[in-house]
Amino acid sequence: MSDTPAPLLRTEKLSRHFTIGNAFSRTSLHAVDDADLVINEREIVALAGESGSGKSTIARLLAMVYTPTSGEIYFRGRALSSLKARKDVMAYRGEVPMVFQDPFSSLNPAYRISHGILRSLKLHRPDLTSAQQQDEAERVLDVVGLTQAADVLTRYPYEFSGGQRQRVGFAQALACRPKLILADEPVSMLDVSIRIGVLNLMANLREQEGVSFLYITHDIASARYVADRLVIMYAGHIVENGPTEEVLRNPKHPYTQLLLSAVPDPRAPLNVTAETDRGEPPKVVNPKPGCRFRQRCPLAIDKCFEVTPEPRLLAPGHVAACHVATSEGPTQGALVGVTERNEQEVNE
Amino acid sequence: MATIGVSAGVDEAPTTASGNRSGRKTGRDSRFGGNLWAAIRSNRKATVGLIILVIFVILAIIPQWIVPGDPAAEIYARMASPSAQHWLGTTAYGQDILSEVIWGARPALIIALVAGLFATVLSVLIGVSAAYLGGIADDILNLLTDVFLVIPTLPLVIVIAAYAGHHGLSVLIIVLVITGWSYGARQLRSQALSLRNRDFLQAAKVRGEKRSYIIVFEMLPTMTSLIVANFLGAALYAILTASGLEFLGLGDTSSVDWGTMLYWAQNNEALQTGQYLWAAVPGICIALLGTAFALLNNAFDEISNPALRPVRRIRVKRTHS
Amino acid sequence: MSSEPILEVRDLTVEYAVARGSVGAVDGVSLDLAAGEFLGIVGESGCGKSTLLFAIAQLLSPPAAITGGTVNFKGRNLVGLTDKQLAASRWQDMSVVMQSAMNAFNPVKSIGSQFKDAIQAHEKWSRDRIKQRSAEVMKLVGIDPIHLKSYPFQLSGGMRQRAMIAMALLFTPDLIIMDEPTSALDVVAQRSLMVQIKELQEKLGFAVAFVTHDMSLVSHFSDRLIVMYAGQVAEVGTTRTVFDSPAHPYSKGLLEAFPSIRGPRVHMTGIPGNPPELINPPPGCRFSPRCPVVMPQCSRIEPELYAVGDVDVRCLLHVNGGVARV
């Protein structure tokens, strides 16, 4: 290992299973299995996947809403399972807050905007006097772009638009002086023209406040816009992981390639793949070993049905869990990578 | 269908509260204070109910200014028909019916409001906690609620009242609370369940708030209209059941109360002997007060759930081209 | 494509009754749809696109109502007709695909029995013919007809949406109206559904009016595109022209608000501000408070739709092109 600084957050074989049915049933839904995730300081990591891929479950595991079924989460080197005292748990919650997807239900409608921010301050920065808390509340609102902060604090959520409410959500997270903000699809429910503003906010916060983000999304394009690294999930497994541009140029996992080919881009000509994929991600209940993408993968070999692929380092910083993927370029024979298609854009 | 929100924004004016992709309606929530008053005034049911309730409240507070003297005094001519001195006539014992009816408003309201209040407190505590805590706690609380729900009320009430020995207002109230909380608990639990997954509750949990804090300070404030509607329902239940008990003679038969009036009227075969007013008037008062509560209950349901409100129709000015 | 449009909407106006008066959700919208044409209607929330669609299909209910304009479908004005009069063309000539199949399907009936209901509402076919047609349409959208026995919850999201489209095809209508049918689906399922719809359209020849907030989604499939803003048509023209050289500053801003996964990574700004409150729209051009190239007269004069080459655009920048519509 070179002398890269220690990661801010690291998960090791993180798994979360849910028992379906009554307490005696043995049916287990594997929402997340063996996830190895790394988030460094001042970094935006995008966790992308379809719904049901397990990305929201990972967010909730990191937010200590769920406890892991197995595996461990290390924050600043310390295992979360070792945090027993309320004081320690609260310290963690202050350093790793969460922003939610739905701006219309993430703020309590019965209270003014000041409520959430002041509660965060009260719980995580009790050393501040109430005058200082008021100042800090105004400061964080200012930082997120709601510049008439003193006025904003006195209003109710219903007076604001979706984009403004999401900014309030970020302000609440900032009030705790966090190191890592877990953003669970923060722009999915916003209008397109508003999304960019919120994504720009995240990038600014990374620069100016030194905050890292785990940006959970199903929209690869927005992930590319804002993230330093891209993690792709499928059916509870992390299938690919690496620097954003690298993953987009050389997608190693066939699922990543499928995902990239399905992203609509008005500026590119239509590329209808010969076999339009009709599959759906499997419901992972009591799974057998083997790659979970095997039913839909055009490159599946026998091994894929028997042995679960382990993540392998295939290029600097670029990891993929696929038996067929190699270190040279995008995996051949599947769907083409992004640059190759650009080369095919000969005549419009 | 696209919906349009109406509100003031913070940044540039003009703005709406609809910058969201889901196009959800973002109309005014029922804020308390000015908006509550406006909500009541605009809802016809609420206005009527409130007027009736206010009339009874006035009668309950200052009966002595309207009908001075002791209502139970048996000093007048017996079974007199309505006249200038006795607007509703007199009872078989020589009591002025109007006087009794007006003085009877106070115990009726006390029973309704106090029993309603305590029953609602129990409903809220048990129902909302069951919804939020989930798991085994939910199962146990549900079992408790179901047991009380299933017990036949009137026999239980009769047994307790008879067993309690002395018949007074407090016994009545206790009995009503014990038998009246379970229905509301059920309702509030299902309503709380639907609210449980709202993101702001998750946000509070992730922020590090304690569970008791979340239930009391994050969840309940968003359920105020529902709780008030529940209270009004409990008050309705209380007044009707209390009157029934008193009619059976299980209340304090020496008190001046509408139900007790019905008891004595029945004992003296008022309807058979032509003393219609003695039986009818207290009955009508019970019904009116009950109606007031029912109307307000409906109105609060509508206030808290816009889907129940009457739909406006636009006057269509067709321009034929 | 024949030259006679099968759908002609002229000056359609829809208003909602609210406490303070009425809100104009759709304000004087006109559009033409030729047989077999794929028309995309895009815009953000609150622009009126879904209301427009429902108004065309005559599915509005109080507090919304059509207060002006005509909707000529195959020569007949649908505005003001009773349900009975509309029944003749509903589903047989025009059908609707809703946003969420889970909401549109009855959860307690099987897919097949819902198809049967739809058929029996309009025709008296024999049981065999109903079965045969149901299996046919399922095969058209790529679902095994055995799923006619399934309940909606047993199908995956993508399959449900395709079943909805199958139901819309029962009588091979001339026009299918689609209200964001892909928004509940994931990217991969979205893509395959769009390709499927286009294939069916080319095979069966029906026209499509497709409403979405996602401009990039329709870019490869629609023949013409309407961009709506604040209840009005901001721009309308052939898809390629609108994408390659958007004439309206709003269309331009909207297009530029989609980050791309190809090409260089550039800083984007989106469109500042929020759409206007329709109960009291701003004077002059409704986009002027947010427009990056606003001119002084924009807040005084209300622009009409002006013809500029292949497109009609509601912007004073192009006023010299002449008024496109009266």
Overview of the molecule:
The complex is a heterotrimer of chains A (348), B (321) and C (326). Chain A contains twelve helices and 13 strands. Chain A is of the alpha/beta class and 348 residues long. The longest helix of chain A is centred in the middle third of the chain and has 17 residues, at 192-208. Chain B has 321 residues and is mainly alpha-helical. Helix content of chain B is 63%, strand content 0%. The model of chain B is unreliable at 1-34 (pLDDT under 50). Chain C has 326 residues and is α/β, with parallel strands linked by helices. At the A-C interface, helix 7, helix 8, helix 10 and helix 12 of A face helix 6, helix 7, helix 8 and helix 10 of C.
Number of strands of chain B: 0
Radius of gyration of chain B: 25 Å
Major beta-sheet overview of chain B? none
| Overall average pLDDT of chain B | 79
Taken in chain order, the helices and strands of chain A follow as: EEEEHEEHEHHHHEHEHEEHHHEEH
Distance between the termini of chain A: 47 Å
Shape of chain A: globular
Q: What is the residue-mean pLDDT of chain A, rounded to a whole number?
A: 86
The helix tally of chain A amounts to: 12
Strand content of chain B: under 5%
Helix content of chain B: 55-70%
Structural class of chain A: alpha/beta
Strand content of chain A: 15-25%
Specify the biggest β-sheet of chain A: 8 strands, mixed
Radius of gyration of chain A: 21 Å
Outline:
By secondary structure, chain B is mainly α. In chain B, 63% of the residues lie in helices and 0% in strands. In chain B, 43% of the residues are buried.
